[in-house]
Each structure stands twice: as C-alpha cells, then as structure tokens.
Design goal:
The complex is a heterodimer of chains A (about 110) and B (about 110). Chain A is mainly β and about 110 residues long. Chain A is built from no helices and eleven strands. In chain A, a hairpin with a 5-residue loop joins strand 9 and strand 10. Classes of the chains: A mainly beta (about 110), B mainly beta (about 110).
Chain lengths: ~110, ~110
C-alpha cells in the first residue's frame, strides 16, 4: 500500500510568494525521503532529498523540513516563479535494497503571474 | 537531456498488437525500473532489475513482459493490452547498493490502447 501521501492535490500561488507543499508518511522506519518535480510532458526530476537524521535541508530556493514526531515532511519553495509550475511528489524507498520507491499522489502547483 | 532515454515518446496500439518500449540509461547505474503513471493515481512500480536480475514484480499482468539484456538497457514488451493499460510508462535507473540513491527518470512513453 501507499506509504506516503500528499495533503492537497492542487496549490495556486502568486509569482514571488513562497510555496509550501506537504506530505505525510506512515512508515516510522523510513529513513530517507525525496522530492520530485514533474513538468508537463516530462518524467519526474529529482529536486532534493533528506535523511532521517536531519530535520532540515536547503537547496537553491528550496528547503525540505522533516518532522519525524508526526511523520510529516514539507517542501518550501522561496520566491516562486512560473517555471516552478509542475506536479510535486514526495517519495520514500521501501523493501529489499530500498528499490521499492513509493510515491504520493502529487500536488499540482500553479504559479499565477 | 536526461541521462535516461525512452523510445518511442508516443505509441498507439490496438489490443491485438505486439509492441515494445525501450529504455537506455547513460548514468552507469546498475538498477533499472518500470513505472506506470495513470491519471490521478500515484506512480505504480511495475518491475525492478538489479544487476540485470529481476528482483521485483508487483503483480503485473503477464501481458507486460520486461527484458533487461544488460545494465544499460531495459525493454517492456506489450501483448494483447487492454484500454485500461493506457498510461504514461516511465523508466528509471539508480545505483543499487549505494545508500540514498534517488531514481533518475526518463520522459516516458505515452501509450494509448485502442
């Protein structure tokens, strides 16, 4: 069954505002999480990852926060741009060799000019 | 340009046809995957190959048949599909055995079964 799930299927923000996309997971043994971005007509692209021994990790304009107590992670995008419009997935690997990557249903982010 | 190339990008086939999807990765990875992406559903893992050996088969119908001749190439052979098999089929690769190795995806084959 699904081990990760996103809270909202859609999110609309104004260009320049910050975006926050949330994800909950159910497996308390999960120790690695990944955020992917999927633009129209393309496959998912790796954005940022985080291990469970961290509660925050920053990239370029993106920050992932991990709250292991409530099994929740979020992706924050600063100064959202039109090019950020896409579907965002959280994922965590399960199973033997961590090969079974489980994905949430995705949140579609729309950036309004 | 991604490190994972899928062909064809689009495919329309009848239910009695036989076709194959092709995937090639240029990243030196040793694990390859097939995922199915349907509208409004999470990505579904279909098959996993580690070092050319199939290690996962998530109850996929036998009308889908994977083939992994080497660590860089992966095929999905299709035979007598159903209209509900219409979806985006995504190939991915990763470096198995490496801690925290994310998947790298191709851009998919959009399959329509008529």
């Amino acid at each position: 069954g699904e081990s990760v799930g996103l809270h909202l299927p859609t999110l609309s923000v104004q260009e320049g505002d910050n975006s926050i996309i949330n994800c909950a997971y159910s497996n308390s043994a999960s120790d690695y999480f990944i955020w992917y971005k999927q633009e129209s007509g393309k496959g998912p692209q790796f954005i940022i990852d985080i291990r469970s021994n961290m509660d925050k990790r920053q990239g370029q304009r993106v920050t992932v926060l991990l709250n292991k107590t409530v099994k929740h992670l979020s992706l924050q995008i600063a100064a959202t741009q039109p090019g950020d419009s896409a579907v965002y997935f959280c994922a965590d690997p399960q199973g033997r060799n961590n090969n079974d990557m489980r994905f949430g249903a995705g949140t579609r982010l729309t950036v309004k000019p | 340009e991604t490190g994972v190339t899928q062909t064809p990008r689009h495919l329309v086939m009848g239910m009695t046809n036989k076709k194959s999807l092709k995937c090639e990765q240029h990243l030196g990875h040793n694990a390859m995957y097939w995922y199915k992406q349907s509208a409004k559903k999470p990505l579904e893992l279909m098959f996993v190959y580690n070092f050319k050996e199939q290690t996962e088969n998530n109850s996929v119908p036998s009308r889908f048949s994977p083939e992994c001749p080497n660590s860089s190439h992966l095929f999905l052979h299709l035979h007598t599909l159903q209209p509900e098999d219409s979806a985006l089929y995504l190939c991915a690769s990763s470096q198995a055995g490496t801690e925290n190795s994310p998947l790298h995806f191709g851009n998919g084959t959009r399959l329509t079964v008529t």
